[in-house]
Amino acid sequence: MDRASLKKVRRLVVKVGSQVIAQREGLAFDRLKSLAKQFATLNREGRECLVVSSGAVAAGYKRLGLTERPKTLRLKQAAAAAGQVSLMLAWEKALGVYGLKAAQILLSAEDLADRGRFLNARNTLNCLLEQGLTPIINENDTVAVEELKFGDNDTLGSLVASLVEADLFVNLTDRDGLYAADPRKFPEAELLAEVPEVTAEVLAMAGGEGGPLGVGGMFTKVRAAGRLAERGLPSIIASGLTRDVLGRLVDGENLGTFFPPEKKKRGAYKHWLAFATRPKGTLWVDAGAAAALKDRGKSLLPGGVYKVEGVFAAGDAVNIAQKEGVGPLGVGLSNYSSPEVSLIMGLSSQEIVKKLGYGHSEEIVHRDNLVVFSQ
Questions:
Q1: Tell me, what's the pLDDT at 152?
Q2: Residues 327-350: b if buried by 16+ CB within 10 A, e if exposed
């Protein structure tokens, strides 16, 4: 897929970063209005737009009398509650100038981790689009505890793009795209027009923190693009400060950094399993089991498990790990609870019934409910 094919895009998710629409003195209404005009133009062309908008905390912390972005979860939640009102009013006003109507959707990580709620969110968003509304989506920061947060709207945006099966994910920031080196330190650094594959080296290139008004840096944006590429969806990281950036992107203009989809794409269910679920434990496996999972696409049998961590029920997501200090090998839905796995680990599948007195399945994790990470 190349940029020229973006002219066929009919549904796009646009993530708008705090650095684009928020200033130290509050929301930048002129920028919101400019984006609203672009959404209206895209709508007239027959394209559907969903917006993942940051800016609630940036809009709210001054209403609390704070001089800088809050550091504690308690104050972040208070600022989000105060700022979300201002954010939605600003979007409603900006969109209204061009005859569009906004609909607010607040999501928590728990909403998308549960498969039923995930599908309900999809149905709601599709219904809003059918009714001609523009969904404005944000994380429900006011109630989410730290361990149940997306952590950044780049991750949320990529999950929404997969959720609604968008044709394109556009991540608008205050940078022109991904550079070969940090342009703040190396002004001559090259802007990368395209990244064919998000490798460990590319992620290392993107390392760094977000700005004072936002959370995610370039790393989370590139990681989100890489996950969508695996899903088979293209992404672009571009500057939201560029004139008519959205229209020019869907016309195929060479702006920002383009991340084409991978040819061998991951299905919607496996993408949800890999990135939306919140694993409640870890199954540690031996080298033989790891090889069977990675190289032969097998299910995880009890004989390959040697240690269980965490407390989980049958049907919960669990990480699968092989080595200490290394990220998980994969993630899957366990057919057995943590106490049950503790009893049957190391045994053959034929010994499950003898040990437990019953057997849900021969596998602890079936390959249909398992994702093995490429890196």
A1: 83
A2: ebbbbbbbbbbbebbeebbebebe
